[in-house]
Amino acid sequence: MTDQVVATYSIVACDLDAGQWGVATQSKYLAVGSVVPWAEPRVGAVATQAWVNPRYGPDGLALLRDGRSAEKAVAELTEADLGHAHRQLGIVDGEGRAASYTGERCIGWAGGRIGDGYAAQGNILVSGETVVAIAETFEATVGRPLAHRLLEALDAGQEAGGDSRGQQSAAILVVEKNGGHGGMSDTLVDLRVDDHELPLEELRRIYELHDALFGKTPRIEWITVDGELAAELQDRLAALGYHGELDGTFRAWAGKENLEERVDGIEHVDPVVLKALREAR
């Protein structure tokens, strides 16, 4: 068998109310994000690992797209694979149904757990407490954004023991129909740490940067730009070399800082953008 062992823990999950599906994973394996996570909005999410068969990703999504449930997709994928005893797989379908599969020849500790809208699984783990912590943390964070819940679940899994071989890479993928890049992409979050001593900490750092640049603050939390705040904005922009009408200089600065998706006129300002301007040097 020429496949590579991806000693991994992962969670596949969805938020049906938000219309989001996602996968998060960590492993003692280079670039785990290149093989484990797969997702398609309104279709489902797949994590393929252990003696990994990467075709489980696209083939699993194709089965879900054709109407198979998560459980049936897992059954069809593994029954057609001569190496299924070495595989591990988690799937959540478009209706939030979940299934997790661990072949009998996966290296211990190996196993999974399913719940409402999620499947958690891992192999070559310190113990089953890693999967328990992932599942319980995901269940306890209902109401928060899916990406946040996935990251919290990974952190909990690591704190409970994680991969018995250590850490190397991590990834998170979240999809939503027209949810990314100005409504022109289905990819809401797609971040990877391919090789790092503390991949979960680095993934969190990158995610927070991503959220600052591309996240959305509810409009009710935006700050009204009155005369005093307008003068402050003008002064701060001038100090950074932006001179002229406030609307134009504000947009120019925000564009340079990749914050343009958080700008909509100058009557109100996103607090994330205001904080960035106040900290700019």
What features would you describe in this structure?
The chain has 281 residues and is α+β, with helices and mostly antiparallel strands. It has 2 domains: 5-214, Glutamine Phosphoribosylpyrophosphate, subunit 1, domain 1, CATH 3.60.20.10; 220-279, no CATH class. The chain has 8 helices and 13 strands. Strand 8 (111-115) and strand 9 form a beta hairpin. Helix 3 runs antiparallel to helix 4 (146-159). The protein starts with a strand and ends with a helix.
Give keywords.
281 residues, alpha+beta, Glutamine Phosphoribosylpyrophosphate, subunit 1, domain 1, 2 domains, 6-stranded antiparallel β-sheet, 5-stranded antiparallel β-sheet, 8 helices, elongated
Order of helices and strands: EEEEEHHEEEEHHEEHEHHEH
Given as residue ranges, the uncertain stretches (5+ residues, pLDDT < 50) are none
Spell out the CATH superfamily of the largest domain. Aminohydrolase, N-terminal nucleophile (Ntn) domain
The CATH class of the largest domain is Alpha Beta
The secondary-structure class comes to alpha+beta
Please state the overall shape, judged from the principal axes of the Cα atoms: elongated
> Based on the structure given, which CATH architecture of the largest domain is correct?
4-Layer Sandwich
Q: The CATH topology of the largest domain is what?
A: Glutamine Phosphoribosylpyrophosphate, subunit 1, domain 1
Tally of contiguous helical segments:
8
Domains, number: 2
Q: Compute the separation of the termini in Å.
A: 56 Å
| Proportion of helical residues | 25-40%
Write down the overall mean pLDDT: 95
Strand arrangement across the biggest beta sheet: 8-9-2-3-10-11
